[in-house]
Amino acid sequence: MKRVNVVATFIAFILFFSFSSGAYAVPPFNNLEGVGGVAFNPLAYPADSDGENSHLKIGDTDVLGKPRFGAWYVRLGETKVDWTSIGTAVTFLKRLEVSYGFQTINQSNAPARHKHNIGTKLLMLPENSFDLKFIPAVSAGAIFKTTNPTGFGPSSNGQDFYLVATKLITQLPLPVLISGGGLATQGKVTGVFGYDNKRQIVGFGNIDFVLPLNLIFGAEYKQGPRYADWKDADYYNVHLAWTPTKNLTLISAYVNAGDEKSTKRVGLGNGFVLSAQYAF
Predict the structure, then answer these.
(1) What domain count does the chain have?
(2) pTM score > 0.85 for this model?
């Protein structure tokens, strides 16, 4: 009961200040795999594609956006997992995002694993297309992954393909970002434990409230794939981001990566997440 009261007080505190001033821009950030998104999931928006952060223009054409960098630290206490990630993304012509993420996963009584992620994302339908305010941004993307060593699984390489729609709703008292999509994946724990020969389709979603005081409060969910010999747990997190400047964002989160004691699904337990994001 005490924990529920603390959470309720925190939410009330956030909502109390929600009408006092405006906040800076919403995501995307560099997610754990370097892709423009939140933590687990991609968003349809390419990183820094609004034209305000152009690195190279030819006439009125934004050829190359300025890059975005992100760093993550995940600590899962029950399984003693330290998961660190750094990533960067850049956008061409306000449509094509190219990203790279490098991850190191350390777990007690297991060798460290290193994972490389090369991503591409194409904005197929910009938000509010055809002057219709209800049209979301829609993007398709791919992530090419390599893990060394895998420790498990028949392959050390795999690919993810996804389709995602994202909409910022501004007609409410608070701007709300809603995003969801489908992911076709081969990864076991996103590829940390290798890749399956067959692909599974899973769903994912995000909701974020853009608050005054330069705060963003939200949650995200990612379904775990179910292979013939391996079943991942579902993941979710609750996060709070603070953007003290237009360039810098700091994020903290509580994450649940499944029950580590389950015999039916592979889970890594729960813990905390910290991230720093910088957009030039």
Answers:
(1) 1
(2) yes
